[in-house]
Amino acid sequence: MSLKESYPYYLANEPQTPNLDLEVVDKYTGETACRVPLADPEAIDRAIGAAEAAVGPMGQMAPYERQDVLNHCVRRFRERFDEFSEALCIEAGKPIKDSEGEVSRLIDTFRVAAEESVRMHGVVMNMEISPRARGYRGMWKRVPIGACSFIAPFNFPLNLAAHKIAPALAVGCPFVLKPASLTPVGALLIGEILAETNLPKGAFSILPCRRDGADLFTTDERFKLLSFTGSPGVGWSLKAKAGKKKVILELGGNAACIVDRDADLEDAVERIVFGAFYQSGQSCVGVQRIIVHADVYEEFRTRLVEATKILKMGNPKDADTFIGPMISEREATRLKGWIDEAVAAGASLLCGGTRDGAMLEATLLDNVPQGQSVTTEEAFGPVAILSRFENFDDALSEVNDSVFGLQAGVFTRDLYNANKAWDTLEVGGVIIGDVPSWRVDHMPYGGVKDSGLGREGITFAMEDMTEVRLMVVRTP
After folding, report:
1. Which of 26, 83, 250, 466 satisfies CB 3.0 to 4.6 Å to 142 for a cystine?
2. First-to-last CA distance in the chain?
3. How far, in Å, CA of 383 to CA of 107, rounded?
4. Which helix (H) or strand (E) element contains residue 60?
5. Please, what are the averages of pLDDT over each run of 10 residues along the chain (476 residues)?
């Protein structure tokens, strides 16, 4: 399993290799896996100009032509499934089974976008709501918003880029994408496949660059939309600098999962172990807070600790590895510090808690005092904390006691409690009978509070990437 020595970036649909300044590291071995170019501000400026020039030609593409492009991508993703999976495993350190799962979702995302690309309908409106509107009729349709700026994160470098690229292609918006510098290869492979199509020149650019050289992605007024996925601190600062353009933010969370007294504990443990520790906990909706009814707390805790202890940690290229490396040793060190701080403050370490380089054991804590970073911030790593509740309303209040609000999970068989959770929880999505980590790629996905603005999911992103254009006809 290996990568090519180098990959080009894509500027106005064309592969270019002006330098090889960005080293991409194998996150497990720490060795250089490949090199890719870094775009300078001049290249980014040219890409934006090309995207602006492509607005007209992209808008003139017929829906079936856009669908053909997306279907070509689906076919080529399937043909190169193993290549995409292995690249993801290397550059992100993601266990190979998780990598294969992400490539499957990449395919789903483009497939749904292909289906929806021919379903953008308008509405005929009856305007005659009063005598002065007699003889008028109206109709509206959706038109592409224009050139789009996309900034994607490291943790799902394929599918979270796909959730920006695929709806843009479906509606006819040219775009410039900045992939994460830690994991650029997946997006560049998508670019390689897009370059095989007959998209108008300038329809896409995929440009790795340093964060300090990426201001144009946010500030340039030629962009009509900015879609950013990443940390809250960065996301909100970008919004403040974005000017007049529409801004979509998919930010972080410290997702909670409630386990009610009537839950099937075997099922809940199985799903929560997955939700907390898949891809080393590096997910915006990874289970971080587990709130369990007092009547079943002891049994649940025992089962959960046993299930966590048997997770295999090691080389992500091995098929039976569940816990791979975090994205960097720096991030593993940060989270290990949060764990140690919580224990020093009185938390009980139930299992895990040791670090070796970028490898951090799956860790469970309980009795964590209020105000600890591991409770209030986004851990973004393999750690979860347990607490107990007596009253369901108190559990809902504990979930809401957070600056974040992305998704929440509730294991309950009580229909009334399920509906109460849906009515009460201040989150973008409530998942009943499963973990907040669950997502299928056509559903509305996004958060409230510090977790973001807007929704992804193909049709919802397509709405954001279009504007309503009205026509009124008067009959004299």
Report:
1. 466
2. 72
3. 30
4. helix 41-60
5. 94 98 97 98 97 98 98 98 98 97 98 97 95 97 98 96 98 98 98 98 97 91 98 95 97 96 98 97 97 98 98 97 97 98 98 97 97 97 98 98 98 98 98 97 97 96 98 96
The one-letter code for the residue type at 21 is: D
In the chain, the amino acid numbered 141 is K
Q: 327: which 2 tokens?
A: 């994205």
Q: What is the pTM of this model?
A: 0.96
Domains in the chain, please, with CATH?
9-251+451-472 (3.40.605.10), 256-440 (3.40.309.10)
What does the alpha-carbon distance between residue 141 and residue 135 come to, in Å, rounded to a whole number?
21
| Strand 355-356 with 359-360, pairing | antiparallel
Which residue carries 């979509």 as its tokens? 248
Neighbours of 288 (CB within 10 A): 27
Task: Report how far Cα 312 is from the mean position of its chain's Cα atoms.
Answer: 25
And the tokens for 259? 């386990």
User: Three-state DSSP class for 38?
Assistant: coil
Query: Which two three-digit tokens encode residue 300?
Result: 């649940």
SS (H, E, C) 347-401: CEEEECCCEECCEECCEEEECCCCCCHHHHCCCCCCEEEEEEECCHHHHHHHHHC
Cα torsion 431, 108, 147, 139 to 10°: value is -80
242 torsion bin: left (phi>0), alpha (psi -120 to 50), beta (else): alpha
For tokens 């960097």, what's the residue? 328
Distance CA 45, CA 180 (A): 19
What are the residue numbers of the active site? 250, 284
